[in-house]
Amino acid sequence: MKEVVFVRQNRSKWKRYDDCLRNIKEQSPDDLADIYIDVTNDLSFAQSHYPNSRIHFYLNNLSAKIHQYINLKKKEKFSRIFTYWKTEVPQVMYDARKELLYSFLIFVFSVIIGIYSTAYDEDFPRLVLGDRYVDMTLQNIADGEPMGVYGDTNETVMFWGITIHNIQVSFMIFVSGILTSIASAYFLIYNGIMLGCFQYFFYEQGLLRESFLTIWIHGTLEISAIIVAGAAGITMGNGWLFPGTYTRIESFRRSAKKGGKIIVGTIPIFVIAGFLESFVTRHTELPDGIRLTIIGLSLFFVIFYYGYYPRKIKLT
Q1: Range list of β-strands (E), 206-251
Q2: How many separate helices (H) and strands (E) can be counted in the chain?
Q3: In Å, what is the CA distance from 256 to each residue of 104, 181, 194?
């Protein structure tokens, strides 16, 4: 290949890499590593075919700069624990904003299905929630403790059990994206129907207000994180279904990387939700004002972190 052709084919790409180095703080170590590999491949080609050319010296200089930045990034591993949730997750959430919307709409539609199914079939809660849970809840209601299920287990044991279970569910929703985004949507539908059924069941018992003020103390964060996990799974699945200009494998690799960042970003939220469910939700004697405040603050955080903040980060 003639040097002029080689330069013409890659000029725009190298310029983009130069621009990335000017905004180095916005680049993740993984992105820098991908750029470094690509540049060194081009450098190797130039060394073989144009050893004394200007383009050879340019690529050598460019690869040296990238290598230097990668070494600096390695020293920032500890601080990245904070920048991961401060910058990287919001950035990828902005890119996945359509998938987040799809996940939300699928979940809401499923909740409506759960509500209508429970309203027209009195046996539906037993089918979805199980006979044991329904019988236990009815007995708690008869005993005057409708939310008694939250106080039956030791707080610490409950915290670890619930948190680990919720994280496992979220990763299952994400990993199912390997089987295409339709599989992730299936798990969203299942969980949405359960929620709709659960909430309407308490409405039929005349306990909608009490169940709302109790369940949504932890449920606001927990359900939101499940919807975000659905967005992660849909993101990965869409990479497989709709590769665009990339090969299917490369598209899937990129989308899996984005989805992985999203799902890891939900872990602290599940931890906080597990803490609230284990240590706070059980205190049904708390004033309504306090419970509404916790629900309101949780909702504000979700809207800010997954809605407003990603847009602000991306557009500034």
Answers
A1: none
A2: 15, 0
A3: 20, 12, 28
Cβ neighbors of 247 (< 8 A, separation 6 or more) are none
Q: Single out the residue of 208, 215, 223 nearest to residue 269, CA to CA.
A: 223
Q: What DSSP letter does each residue of 267-294 carry, written as one string? A: HHHHHHHHHHHHHTTT-TTS-HHHHHHH
Q: Which contacts (CB < 8 Å, 24+ apart) does range 290-294 have?
A: 291/213, 291/214, 291/217, 292/213, 294/217
- Cα distance between residue 227 and residue 100, in whole Å: 7
Kindly list the distances between the CA atom of residue 174 and the CA atoms of 55, 195, 233, in Å, as whole numbers in the listed order.
44, 19, 4
Rg (CA), the chain: 25
Sequence-ordered list of residues with C-beta below 8 angstroms from that of 281, at least 6 positions apart, any chain: 147, 150, 214, 215, 217, 218
Task: Give the residue with greater pLDDT, 53 vs 166.
Answer: 166
Buried b (16+ CB within 10 A) or exposed e, 214-232: bbbbbbbbbbbbbbbbbbb
Residues 6+ apart with CB under 8 A from 68: none
Integer Cα distance of 56 and 62 in angstroms: 10
Spatial separation of the C-alpha atoms in residues 201 and 195, rounded to whole Å: 10
The string of pLDDT tens digits covering residues 61-72 is 777 777 677 666
Cα 194 to its chain centre, rounded Å, is 21
Contact between 208 and 202 under an 8 Å Cβ cutoff? The reply is: yes
b/e per residue 257-287 (b: at least 16 CB within 10 A): bbbebbbbbbbebbbbbbbbbbebbbebebe
What's the Cα-to-Cα distance from 302 to each of 11, 47, 306, rounded to whole Å? 42, 51, 6
pLDDT digits (tens, 9 = 90+) for 165-224: 998 888 888 888 877 788 889 999 999 999 999 999 999 999 899 889 999 999 999 999
Count other Cβ atoms within 10 Å, centred on residue 72. 12
Question: What DSSP state is assigned to residue 88?
Answer: I
